[in-house]
């Protein structure tokens, strides 16, 4: 439960723990529930400048969250959207963080292996930093 609460504060924590990737994350419509729209402003460590996403699903009882990027240069001109499904799975006195990313291509062009590898590394680094942040600030969660 605590791990999911920390990751639910991604918008505030990610720019603090990985500012080279996330300059800011701002809500542009909604209150955080399903349908809320947000804009990511990416940092210099990313080959993109921005991306807009909407919250597709939140299931706090199953520790899952889904969102889809629908606009911005993060779609590289070749994608209709990028959907992220996130789930925190309790196990052996701890938890595992699972993420599935679906790249919905406009045509036959696909993101390069280099882009996919870079994005995976960015998210892994960010999630480890968020986990460390939560452990260092347990009173907040």
TrEMBL record:
Recorded GO MF terms: abscisic acid binding; protein phosphatase inhibitor activity; signaling receptor activity
Gene3D superfamilies membership: 3.30.530.20
InterPro entries on file: Bet_v_I/MLP, Bet_v_I_allergen, Plant_def-hormone_signal, START-like_dom_sf
Boundaries of every Bet v I/Major latex protein domain copy: 1-133
Gene Ontology biological process: abscisic acid-activated signaling pathway; defense response
This protein's GO CC annotations: cytoplasm; nucleus
CDD domains per the UniProt record, alphabetical: Bet_v1-like
Family membership noted in the UniProt record: Belongs to the BetVI family.
Protein name: Bet v I domain-containing protein
